[in-house]
Amino acid sequence: MKAWTRRQFGGMAGATLLAAINPRIARSDTKARVVVIGGGAGGATVARYLASSTETIAVTLVEPKRRYITCFFSNLYLAGLRPLESLSHGYETLAQHYGITVIHEPAAAIDPVAKTVGLGGGAQLPYDRLVLAPGIAFKFGGIDGYDEAAAQVMPHAWNAGPQSELLRRQLESMEDGGVFVLVVPPDPFRCPPAPYERASLVAYYFKQFKPKSKILILDAKDSFKAQDLFEDAWARHYPGMIEWLPDQFTGGVMGVDVKARSVLTAGDTFKAAVANVIPAQTAGDLARQAGLADESGWCPVDPVTFESTLQPGIHLVGDAIIGGDMPKSAFSANSQAKACAFAIAAALTGSEHFAPHLFNSCYTFFSPDDAFSNAINFKPEDGKLKAVNTFVSKLDESPETRRNTAQQAVGWYAAFTRDVFG
Amino acid sequence: MKTACSLLAGLVLLSSHAGAVADTSQGAQLAATCASCHGLDGGDKGIPAIMGLDEQKIIAAMLAYKANERPNHVMHAIALSLSDEELASVARYLADHERDGNPP
């Protein structure tokens, strides 16, 4: 047993005193380390809530992009209703106000045995717990001829940023009377109502500037959520402009001809003035490379802690997980991220962990002043996330209610992005 | 000894106010749900700010949402998910906290 000298004791007392004044700095060498990969709605929220729920965890956020452009609300940008800059968020507040170490490099590899993350620049980041929020990857190859190069001509715009700008430019330069073809992927995909919101808001743009144009939706499904609400809104706002063709009608989208800018279904060829092809999706690359996805291509997790059921010590939130009844949305990711952050804080610091409250709410625009919302609460049950109560706007709501919902949506965006990025 | 204790208490207070406030209480964990829509730093465009509201008023409003006497399906879903104990805990948390913009 070590004998304490008066000098050593004095030194320790000094360190304790310093820790009391500024625990974040003084305890840095003994802090538990959490590395979060991915700075979207899920990852940034985990980092922010972990950093502020305890001062004894050192949080590192790995995200190659300096600015994050939100997919949510990017349909408003496509319709010319919002500048892309208004959807762009930096990581400065997370770094400066919350003391999160933000590293703008891609994560290249995960070693779950050594518990390290290899960065693109070659550095190794050690961790006690790792959180992945890698979002989606596209399954190129499902549609013949549609690959990353084709996406430069027929954009998916299902990640916001350059793809959104490309699609917006194409819509702006399209001549009146053209056909906008929108290819909707099979379930599950990021933000289930978004393809139909996109059709609505592009129709809003056409109605003002290119009223002879048409919108053709080629769907991999035979029905979609809130279909009655969309069809009612399309008939009211954009009569005759939007045509929706289900899978059972077309036999499915088989391929694209990039040069001719046409989309091929089982029985037809649809010539597009602008084609927006949204491919089928899977969990982000790193999650699959690290063995965190199952045969479905998505990542199974514990619904209370969001720890991988395939790899202990690694948690996942957001679009990449098998969310049970929770849709792949930014709101779901943010809600899961908080449950995950509190679970990790409890595991690493012994803080109390309460039953998580998981929630999703989505605002969807038919036009700038006609929006609907849904709200669902979830609870973990038998290892899955089950919906408990589901509420959706009603068909017969007054225009005033819909206008209020549209205003709430704008307020929600401001509050939500503050909740994610600080 | 008394002096040392008050000094220590002072330091603990100081540390809890440095930077983000560390709080993993039940109220804080529940209030995190509110922060997804309500600007906790006082922004209330379209959706009202709720930090610092009277505790009893919050409970009364939430019970009205729960019973659907106040129609709003987002708040109805939230209210239905809260037990009486959880509602009391989150109302106390919101009432006690300033609009500091930090996560609950």
Report the CATH architecture of chain B: Orthogonal Bundle
Strand content range of chain B: under 5%
Protein structure class of chain A: alpha/beta
CATH architecture of the largest domain in chain A: 3-Layer(bba) Sandwich
Main β-sheet, spatial strand arrangement of chain A: 5-2-1-9-19
| Multimeric state | heterodimer
Summed up, the helix count of chain A is 12
Order of helices and strands of chain B: HHHHH
**Derived structural class of chain B:** mainly alpha
Provide the domain count of chain A.
Answer: 2
CATH topology of chain B: Cytochrome Bc1 Complex, Chain D, domain 2
Question: Can you offer a commentary on this structure?
Answer:
The complex is a heterodimer of chains A (422) and B (104). Chain A has helices at residues 6-21, 23-26, 41-53, 74-78, 92-96, 162-173, 194-209, 227-237, 247-250, 285-289, 330-349, 399-421; strands at residues 32-37, 57-62, 67-69, 88-90, 101-103, 107-111, 116-119, 124-126, 129-132, 136-138, 179-184, 214-219, 242-245, 253-257, 262-265, 269-271, 274-277, 281-283, 314-316, 358-367, 370-381, 384-392. Chain A is an alpha/beta fold and 422 residues long. Chain A folds into 2 domains: 23-137 and 282-355, FAD/NAD(P)-binding domain, CATH 3.50.50; 141-279, FAD/NAD(P)-binding domain (3-Layer(bba) Sandwich), CATH 3.50.50.60. In chain A, β14 and β15 form a beta hairpin. In chain A, α3 runs parallel beside α11 (330-349) and α3 (41-53) packs across α12 (399-421). Chain B has one domain (21-96): Cytochrome Bc1 Complex, Chain D, domain 2 (Orthogonal Bundle), CATH 1.10.760.10. In chain B, 57% of the residues lie in helices and 0% in strands. The radius of gyration of chain B is 16 Å and the shape is globular. At the A-B interface, α1, α3, α11, β21 and β22 of A face α1, α2 and α4 of B.
